[in-house]
Amino acid sequence: MNKKPTIKEVAKYAGVSPATVSYVLNGVKKVSNETKKRVLEAVDQLNYYPDFTAISLSKRKSNLIGIMLPLIEDTPASVFKNNFYYTEFVSGVELVSRNRKFDTMITGVGNPEECRQWVKKRNLDGLIFLGLFPEKLYNEMKTLNIPIVLIDTYEKYTNLFSNIQVNDELGGYLAASHLIELGHKDIAFIATDLKSSPVDAKRYQGYKRALQETGIKFNEKLTYQTYDITFEHGKKVAEEILKSEQKPTGIVTVSDVLAIGIMKALQMKHIQVPNDYSIVGFDDLSISEYTTPSLTTVRQDIFEKGKYAANLLINAIESEDVEHQTVELPVELIIRQSTKAL
Amino acid sequence: MNKKPTIKEVAKYAGVSPATVSYVLNGVKKVSNETKKRVLEAVDQLNYYPDFTAISLSKRKSNLIGIMLPLIEDTPASVFKNNFYYTEFVSGVELVSRNRKFDTMITGVGNPEECRQWVKKRNLDGLIFLGLFPEKLYNEMKTLNIPIVLIDTYEKYTNLFSNIQVNDELGGYLAASHLIELGHKDIAFIATDLKSSPVDAKRYQGYKRALQETGIKFNEKLTYQTYDITFEHGKKVAEEILKSEQKPTGIVTVSDVLAIGIMKALQMKHIQVPNDYSIVGFDDLSISEYTTPSLTTVRQDIFEKGKYAANLLINAIESEDVEHQTVELPVELIIRQSTKAL
DNA sequence: CTGAAAGCGCTTACAG
DNA sequence: CTGAAAGCGCTTACAG
């Protein structure tokens, strides 16, 4: 295969200087229409397209965005494996990024230093942080001076970076209210980690608000934390719940994955969902419609979230806009079969 | 933040030329131990790490590998969404790639031309093709002259590229044999697409071999094709099966996703798995242990597959090894609750 | 063993 | 409106 033509060859073919070719390709300065035409034709004839590596080096802009994945035991695998969430998100990012002429790199992140080096050595134009990272990472990243968008982060960092989130409070509220309407009063709340996950905390707030508004007394003993999102952890809380003396009749959960794990554990003990326990998840994963019973859940559009994040990021890159914005995407209760009137 | 030091600054600090710094960093030529030490110290002091963009431009090697994802309706989303498969695979690739100092880019692929441009403009060192692509793409890619590893491809391209696959024939055999041992004789085979998917075809062969070896007559009417891998498509075949007059008692499937869709459809009609139908999946997704009933399936280690692919690819890149190899990873029957003696 | 110089493929003041 | 030249941060024959 004949190799890719360079800008020089295009210039020669068009009878102009490389600089001129660069000008027309970048739409910069005023090039006479005639020479512009000649250049464009040369580009077309030679099937020229620029070398991004070279552009990256001279412009110090790579047209590359990076997605930081949280690592568990040094690999993003486990998070990917149990949290189908991420995968859809990444697809959303890839789609808009490709359409907007950016490429997307992914990495599991190690320490902050490694992360900064990754950005620097590849000249990344922007970053998306998917998930929760140690605080010092954010501080480190702040000094990088490139647009960064955070996903599902609250408080502390919100004003330092752009942020895409979902109406978590409302989600928790919707889930709990649904159960309450069905006549449930003893409603458990299953979180991952209320302290370190602000997302969980918000949903928890919503849950509490629903109780409060309907005059149901909040019972701390009905709150559980799993510290991880896997089916297995769902199973484990279910066992805890069964052992406790404060038995709920309804269960609000912070993730479909957890909800599915819980259902499984119950079913293994021949306890029926929704007859014995009503369960509501969060996310609406594609699997959730196909479990038995299908899962009532709070839906968020994760693919949309990915697209939104990419658009926001690329906007910031292209306009060098320093305004950080935080965007809140809607949430919707999807009623299926895992919940039932008491 | 002070900006990243360049090789010049390191050279100055060490009192040598940039060339020398480059030599020691690349372990090339013989640099006296003493100056080497000085350089290394400078590197350390200044916290220097090279700019990959520059290296990429001058070496024409990017330390970048690309993963091509199949596109559905212009986005990888849907395939990602229903095929949890890919996500684990990508994690495996990312892990070894990172450990071996490569970065990984992902893209949905459009047409062959777009694909070649992607490789060229980013100077990608190697490519992994995940899934099935149109034939002309392979031909086009062949002219790129970079190492490429294909996943789950058979025949035609096997000798043009490296290939990682799984013992599909055995997988089909294992699944069918298991059912046969349980006393099933009318065993359906649910494929995606026997014509265009060689993977399916191999599993089908294995299934037939199992029938043959035990003297069960193969019945073509028990073969179904879904033409896509989604829960929904699983549901649809289940309905077809229920409508047909040739009812199986056991069902062998080419994917857990399909199997789960089938189970769902049956359960919605109050048909019991495994009492009325025994079902075996393929892949062993993490969800498959958590469905009710949990799914008997043929396990393949997809994460391992990703790691293997990345290692093979990077080996080829680094040794400029032109030998294409095809590697076959093992497969294992995991017996759970969706199958039962007749 | 070490360095000056050219080059990778672009971009961008600057001059005309 | 157009081009020559320097520069982005490296590498690598080549010469010494």
Commentary on this structure:
- The structure is a homodimer of 342-residue chains.
- Chain A has 342 residues and is an alpha/beta fold.
- Chain A folds into three domains: 7-50, lambda repressor-like DNA-binding domains (434 Repressor (Amino-terminal Domain)); 64-166 and 303-330, Rossmann fold (3-Layer(aba) Sandwich), CATH 3.40.50; 168-300, Rossmann fold (3-Layer(aba) Sandwich).
- In chain A, 45% of the residues lie in helices and 16% in strands.
- Chain A is built from 13 helices and twelve strands.
- Chain A has helices at 7-14, 18-26, 33-46, 52-59, 77-82, 84-99, 112-122, 135-142, 168-181, 198-213, 231-243, 256-268, 302-319; strands spanning 64-69, 103-108, 126-130, 148-151, 162-166, 187-191, 223-225, 250-253, 278-283, 296-299, 326-329, 332-334.
- In chain A, the strands form two sheets. Chain A has a six-stranded parallel sheet with strand order 2-1-3-4-5-11, with helices on one face. Chain A has a six-stranded mixed sheet with strand order 7-6-8-9-10-12, with helices on both faces.
- In chain A, helix 1 (7-14) packs across helix 3, helix 7 runs parallel beside helix 8 and helix 9 (168-181) runs parallel beside helix 10 (198-213).
- Chain A is elongated.
- Chain A starts with 6 loop residues before the first helix and ends in an 8-residue tail after the last strand.
- The mean pLDDT of chain A is 90.
- The first copy, chain A, binds a DNA duplex (16 and 16 nucleotides) through helix 2 and helix 4.
